[in-house]
Design goal:
Layout lengths: L1 E5 L11 E2 L37 H18 L7 E4 L7 H18 L7 E12 L2 E11 L13 H12 L1 H7 L5 H15 L4 H6 L9 H4 L9 H15 L3 E8 L2 E10 L2 E5 L1 H5 L27 E6 L2 E7 L2 E7 L2 E7 L1 H6 L2 H4 L13 E7 L3 E6 L5 E6 L17
């Protein structure tokens, strides 16, 4: 039995329409962050478990085993890509395939820093009957950019170079230490947009490899550009390093395969599409930057299957010699739909992004506290988002000094 798992998105960019009128884009001001000194994962606590946290039993075991191998390869501790999967319980061939699919999807969405060299994976199993698998072997197949001289190996020098490139992102994240989540998100967007451009040649070939990964964003080489996966993974990684709750999601954008992000600000989820925020020039000879037009967006029709983002008109001006030109990209509706893998990884509440775009305002938490086992918060009267979000501080009687919740 052999099953191949391959994850590569045919990235899409928004098509532009132009007209001869102009509408300015409003600039955003500063916002107020959560109160309290919270761990990274606390900000999405109201949405429940996400990604690998939702895995149980065999799927969780396969995830942990595969993540460790990918981590060891990415850190230069091994070059071999094949390993024996420890089967934690009796499984059928169909269950093995299902659990492995769940495990590898979670890994690809959550750990791009450990899977940047991976093109596809293959699982081979031995079994007495279809109801009883007795052993399973995993082969993590590297892309041509990282393939070793021997079968089922990676090139250690190329792995080291890719990991070193990703490590440069740490300095970018450090620049925004102490900033609000909004300031970090905006800053990460600007940094990525300055480092890379959209790689149309890669989409034409669809060969996979570095154009779909983070190293070509952070390597400092202006000639190494990426497609949507590279943008989304780079943004996700910066958010993870900077303590902003963020997720990678996949599906289609106006009919074309795409990868983008969901970011949580003030307890509400928003769509972030760095690919289209950076700009596009597919149909034009000029580069049209789209600053923040796809940043922290909501959709009035939002649900667990996707949403529609409405972009405002965008003025575009440039010069050629002594002549000046001014156009406007007209307003458009861009439809985003999640695929099955994304819907399996995340909760419905997380995928249902805010009904409206993020707006900057001062939060005023009012009303009774809402609580769970670890945190308490109030909802903002203006936006409904989470305000006054903090950990319980229990007194000697096991009662939270702030909200009155009892220790469980």
């Amino acid at each position: 039995m052999k099953v191949k798992i391959r994850k590569k998105i045919c990235s899409g960019l928004v098509a532009a329409a132009m007209m001869l009128t102009a509408l300015p884009v409003n600039a955003s001001a500063e916002m107020i962050e959560y109160s309290g000194n919270l761990p990274y994962s606390a900000k999405s606590a109201p949405f429940g478990k996400q990604g690998s946290e939702r895995l149980t039993g065999a799927a969780k075991s396969y995830f942990d085993q595969t993540l460790q191998v990918c981590k060891d390869i990415s850190e230069g501790k091994r070059t071999g890509t094949e390993f024996e999967l420890t089967l934690t319980k009796k499984v059928s061939t169909s269950q093995l395939s299902e659990y492995w699919q769940e495990a590898v999807n979670a890994l690809l969405y959550e750990y791009p820093e450990y899977s940047f060299w991976l093109l596809e994976s293959e699982i081979s199993a031995g079994y007495y009957s279809e109801s009883r698998v007795v052993n399973a072997s995993i082969n993590l197949i590297p892309s041509g950019d990282y393939k070793g001289s021997k079968a089922n190996t990676v090139d250690s020098a190329k792995i080291k170079a890719g990991a070193a490139s990703i490590a440069k992102a740490d300095k970018i994240a450090a620049k925004y230490e102490g900033k609000s989540d909004y300031e970090k998100i905006k800053g990460y967007c600007d940094e990525i947009s300055a480092l890379t451009d959209y790689n149309h040649e890669a989409i034409a070939s669809m060969e996979g490899g570095n154009p779909w990964q983070m190293p070509w964003v952070f390597d400092g080489d202006p000639k190494t550009n990426v497609v949507c996966e590279g943008y989304a993974k780079a943004f996700y990684y910066l958010c993870k390093k900077g303590g902003v709750e963020c997720f990678i999601v996949t599906g289609n954008m106006s009919g074309g395969g795409h990868m983008w992000n969901i970011a949580i600000v003030d307890g509400k989820s928003y769509l972030v599409d760095i690919t289209n925020t950076d700009g596009f020039d597919e149909n034009f000879e000029i580069e049209m930057d789209m600053p923040y037009m796809f940043l922290l967006k909501g959709g009035a029709d939002s649900n667990e299957y996707g949403c529609t983002v409405t972009t405002p008109e965008k003025k575009v001006s440039w010069k050629e010699g002594s002549r000046s030109y001014t156009y406007t990209v007209s307003s458009s509706n861009v439809n985003y739909k999640y695929d099955e893998n994304t819907r399996a990884l995340y909760s419905k509440s997380l995928l249902t992004v805010s009904k409206s775009d993020y707006t900057v305002h001062t939060h005023k938490g009012e009303g009774e506290y809402k609580v769970n086992g670890s945190y308490h918060w109030k909802n903002c009267k203006t936006c409904g988002g989470v305000a006054s979000f903090a950990s319980h501080k229990f007194d000697g009687k096991g009662v939270c000094e702030k909200c009155g919740a009892k220790k469980k």
